[in-house]
Amino acid sequence: MELTRLDIAETKAGLAAKTFSAEEVTNAYLERIATQDDVVHAFVEVYADEARAAAKVSDAKKADLPLAGIPLVVKDNLLDMGHVVTAGSRILEKYRSPYSATAIQRLRDAGAVILGRTNMDEFAMGSSTASSAWGPTKNPWDTARVPGGSSGGSAAAVVSDFCAGALGSDTGGSVRQPAALSGLVGLKPTYGRVSRYGLIALASSFDQIGPMTKTVADAATLLSVISGVDAADATTCNVPLVSWKAQESLKGVRIGIPKEYMEGVADMPIGPTIQTAIDQLRAAGAEIKDVSLPHASYALAVYYVLLFAEASSNLSRLDGIRFGPREPAETLKELYRETRGRLFGDEVRRRIMMGTYVLSAGYYDAYYRKAQEARTLLRADYAAAFKEVDLLVTPTSPTTAWKIGELMDDPLAMYLADIFTVSINVAGLPALSQPCGLLDGLPVGLQWIAPHWEEGRMFAAASAAEKLFAFRETHRPKIVL
Question: Where does residue 351 rank: exposed (0-12), middle (13-18), buried (19+ CB within 10 A)?
Answer without folding.
Answer: buried
